[in-house]
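PROTEIN DESIGN WORKSHEET
SECTION A - STRUCTURE
LENGTH: 358
TOKENS:
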């Protein structure tokens, strides 16, 4: 079964034709998907027998609002979405001067095992389809009645561990007369799957690549990020240099400041040395504490000091502004809290074959 939400306008037209309909039915289908249709009964301007034929071939994915939190401080909105098979993912909508940004999830859970991250506790349940990634934008944008102009793939999951669906999503989200969000308005955050970064580079991708570095050397990074045992820092940075060389794009490095672990002056100097000469920016993030782990954030002064050292050595670094602090429950925690509650009403069970191929 195919997900209608994960199909391009052209593919929908081809499907309509194949089912004996004129091509314009494809446009109607596309517009319904854009409006966030969730089942075939809603497609009221389509003939009943066409809808029936469609339902034998395809399904429509969705992301329904299960919980919604609005920050009283800055208007940031955090959603817990329920997918068709009853699984939960999180998204956050933030308002900036240059427009609205949504941070979406790409997997239910995550299997990367980073020691400080709530999304990875319990492993990965399944990958999202491109349609489910889009649905998060459709639902949020309709609920808030706003246009969303920027997307960050930085919610639950590792986007490059769900490579094909993520690539399809990038294509769909840019479709003309669709969401029309171009590559330059999209950031993808990865813990460092080097083979995939090289693929993105080869495709001359124009998205902003955010790399979760979090440590200046293998000793510290391998302790908190298992992926580093496969692709150590040097290999990762070499793939990043290649990305910039092929695409002309600046890399954004995420660095969660964890008290006493990676936040010393020495670490800052080592990091500056590693990044010397790269077209990059470092985002210093006060680490969110996660109930299940012993890590806590570095203090404000430590963050400033670390930032100053990087800047002094010619590495561009800023401390990330915290948005939605009052609704936080850092990524992955909300879903976990709801999963531990007694079950509420569930949707259809999903297709097992939508699992990732490791
Ligand atoms: N898997 C991707 C994207 C999802 S995580 C990645 O690893 O980049 C989004 C970002 O949040 C990553 O930079 C991740 O390392 C960071 N993060 C996860 N848990 C965190 C925590 N407790 N405090 C601060 N940042 C955290």
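SECTION B - SEQUENCE
RESIDUE ASSIGNMENT:
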């Amino acid at each position: 079964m195919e997900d209608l939400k994960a199909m391009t306008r052209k593919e929908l037209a081809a499907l309509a034709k194949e089912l004996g309909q004129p091509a314009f039915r494809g446009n109607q289908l596309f517009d319904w998907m854009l409006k966030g249709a969730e089942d075939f009964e809603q497609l009221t301007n389509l003939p009943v027998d066409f809808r029936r034929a469609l339902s034998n071939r395809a399904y429509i994915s969705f992301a329904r609002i299960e919980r919604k939190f609005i920050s009283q401080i800055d208007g940031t909105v955090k959603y817990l979405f329920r997918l068709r098979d009853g699984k939960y993912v999180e998204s956050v909508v933030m308002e900036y001067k240059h427009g609205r940004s949504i941070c979406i999830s790409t997997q239910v859970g995550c299997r990367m095992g980073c020691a400080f991250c709530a999304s990875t506790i319990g492993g990965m349940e399944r990958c999202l389809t491109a349609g489910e990634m889009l649905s998060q934008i459709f639902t949020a944008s309709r609920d808030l009645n706003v246009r969303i102009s920027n997307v960050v793939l930085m919610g639950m999951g590792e986007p490059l561990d769900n490579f094909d669906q993520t690539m399809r999503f990038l294509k769909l989200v840019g479709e003309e007369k669709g969401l029309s969000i171009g590559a330059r308005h999209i950031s993808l955050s990865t813990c460092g799957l080097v083979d995939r970064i090289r693929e993105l580079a080869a495709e001359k991708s124009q998205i902003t690549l955010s790399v979760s570095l979090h440590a200046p050397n293998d000793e510290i990074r391998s302790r908190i990020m298992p992926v580093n045992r496969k692709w150590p820092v040097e290999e990762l940075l070499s793939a990043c240099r290649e990305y910039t060389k092929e695409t002309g794009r600046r890399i954004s490095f995420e660095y969660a400041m964890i008290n006493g672990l990676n936040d010393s002056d020495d670490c800052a100097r080592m990091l500056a040395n590693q990044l010397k000469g790269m077209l990059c920016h470092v985002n210093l993030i006060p680490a969110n504490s996660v109930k299940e782990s012993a890590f806590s954030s570095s203090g404000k002064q430590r963050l400033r000091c670390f930032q100053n050292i990087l800047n002094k050595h010619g590495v561009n670094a800023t401390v990330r502004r915290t948005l939605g602090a009052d609704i936080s429950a850092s990524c992955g925690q909300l879903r976990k809290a709801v999963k531990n509650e007694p079950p509420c009403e569930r949707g259809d069970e999903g297709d097992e074959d939508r699992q990732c191929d490791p």
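SECTION C - NOTES
The chain has two domains: 2-59, 63-340.
Residues 342-358 have pLDDT under 50 and may be disordered.
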